[in-house]
Amino acid sequence: MSLHTKTTMIITEKGDAEPFSHERLISFVKKITENYPNLNKESYLKRVIQAIESRDTFSTEKITNLLILEGLSYIDENEPDWTFVCAHIYLKKLYKEAAKNRGYHPEEQYGDFYHLIKTLVAKGVYSPKLLEDYTKEEIVEFGKLINPEKDKLFTYIGLRTLADRYLARDYDRNLYELPQERFLMIAMTLMAKEQKQLRFALVKEAYWALSNLYMTVATPTLANAGKSYGQLSSCFVDTVDDSLQSIYDSNTDIANLSKSGGGIGVYLGKIRSRGSDILGFKGVSSGVIPWMKQLNNTAVSVDQLGQRKGAICVYLDVWHKDIFAFLDAKLNNGDERMRTHDLFTGVCIPDLFMEQMEKRGDWYLFDPHEVRKVMGFSLEDFYDEERGKGHFREKYWQCVENPHLSKEKVPAIEIMKNIMRSQLESGSPFMFYRDEVNRKNPNSHLGMIYCSNLCTEIAQNQSPTITEQQYTKDGKIITVKTPGDFVVCNLSSINLARAVTDNVLKRLIPIQVRMLDNVIDLNKIPVLQAQLTNQKYRAVGLGTFGWHHLLALKGIRWESEEAVEYADKLYEEIAYLTIQASMELAKEKGSYPAFTGSDWHTGTYFEKRGYRNSQSNLDWDMLKEQVKTHGVRNGYLMAVAPNASTSIIAGSTASIDPIFLKVYAEEKKDYKIPVTVPDLNAETTWYYKSAYHIDQLWSVKQNAARQRHIDQSISFNIYVMNTIKAKDLLNIHLTAWKLGFKTTYYLRSTSSSIEECESCAS
């Protein structure tokens, strides 16, 4: 009796049927795994073959998906390289999809670049400016820069994130663009207005930086560069004046920015408190909570091109009479009419509050409208110029002592308890140490910083936009406004693990700063005062990610003085190179309009940070003189953002954060992908300690060393177990403040669910 084994038929994309070939599959798997000898290929092949042969028919597309899914199931601490195998298979799928839509053979991998641009311009996806700014000959030459080998740098989760969210598709979601084309498109877009004789070299250099994953651009730039829609900046901060007109105008501005992908910080500290008077009528104001409710509705209803709801963080001063209601706004219990679950919150804290809280003293709450009326000044317009003394505390005590000014007295520690309770439950409020921020503001000659942005890394001058008059003329309604400083920031981040390891910082940072600076002139922001502020300060935010990855590669323990010293040394070098790059750009293109009188101009910037040759191996004295002579192109230069999604694309660890787990599942809306920390092996595993098991005071020390070199701020997360004692959490906050922190971001406890900010990801 003979055994008859049925043969599974493979259905090709053309609909043809052919018998399943073991040899062909084995040959394919052998080829894509040849650089990874330690993988369990035999078991993998056996399971794939069993799955195929268990059915009568199997399509080629389903085989591709099966190969990926089986590969993902093998990812663990011992075999992390399966992620690259899965990425390789997924790449072939992307090549095939793009080739089909664009009409070329998949074996070519990348099709004609000029044809791609022509096609997507015709479909309304790419901007026609690309064909106006560049000739066909230039675009053909750019196309020759594309190196498909660079696609092999991606992990599976990195490639999948890039493909799902950032590669250009037509309006029916058909894929046209491939990874290296996205990078080249960004380079071309950002260099379009450069001098023609320099453009090719600059595009080539920008493509080098992006394709090697030495850096990433902010998600709005990554998503929208070269497109016919969207804008390129990451972060905005608005200051709301105490008037109905300003409140509603701000809401409209915020909606317009939110729809095009920006994350927004909003300062509410000028708005009168609940029970304040309006037009002399006592006790009729409803305070800040109703306006927060309005912003909450805006965040929910104005989503970001259908991808995610708007992201808004509101800030309030710790002396504002509405502070307790504000701190309760994110809690899950209590009066829902007073809750704003879709907003993030931040508290603006002066040194004096921390001092009073530490010595268990009293704290006084005021109505900002009444302070203006009775005292003739705005308390929020002052800060302490030195630790322990300054104009803010003078004005504050004047308010306390004035018998005509109403006030509420509370123990300072009670406010701090409410802050920490809300943080443990919801992750916020974020902390904004206003005195330290303003003391280190390089542009304090022109303004004041009241709060930070959504992710707490931006610190720039702010002021409200005021509507002066409205009138009719020739049948038109004319509105005259005095524009305030509406903060804009353009972000980009260095991949530390790759750039430092390959020793390319000196080459990388100049092209990165140029790319950031060019965003300012290319961007079309739908809020005019933001456009004006962008031109006035030319602010950029060069940051970093992959810090824990870098420490692991270098064999440096997180909880060590060595890590603190390395943070100090590395970020000093990054600061030096960034300032130098902006100075060189100023030589070429001119310094930012507000340079004269700034700390950059006077040299105070360098003195405040102790930058001198006698205390460094970098030539700070010369750079200080060069900046004084030539200026800097950008009024604000550095900011370390959370960059959760772009660090995934680049295959590294997020921002300056420690890892959560060595092996985890990355959960997105419709799939879950196993991921290991980068470069996980027998040597690095000992240096990958979980964030929740790290003594946070070591993280605080590292960040204090780092903050000295960052002119803006840093998205610094605090990681604690949900069993943490109040005194220990209080000690972390006190230590951060005493060591010169400007801000802290989320309190990430093991009990709270945190929403990632994706606007600032860079």
Automatic annotation (TrEMBL):
**Which Gene3D superfamilies does the entry link to?**
3.20.70.20
Please provide, in alphabetical order, the Gene Ontology terms of the cellular component aspect for this entry. Answer: ribonucleoside-diphosphate reductase complex
Question: Which PROSITE patterns has this protein been placed in?
Answer: ATP_CONE, RIBORED_LARGE
Is the keyword Cell inner membrane assigned to this protein?
no
A GO MF label:
ribonucleoside-diphosphate reductase activity, thioredoxin disulfide as acceptor
Q: What is its EC number?
A: 1.17.4.1
Alphabetized, the UniProt keywords read: Allosteric enzyme, ATP-binding, Deoxyribonucleotide synthesis, Nucleotide-binding, Oxidoreductase
Q: What does this protein do?
A: Provides the precursors necessary for DNA synthesis. Catalyzes the biosynthesis of deoxyribonucleotides from the corresponding ribonucleotides.
Q: What protein name is recorded for this chain?
A: Ribonucleoside-diphosphate reductase
**Which organism does this record belong to?**
[Anoxybacillus] calidus
Its lineage reads: Bacteria, Bacillati, Bacillota, Bacilli, Bacillales
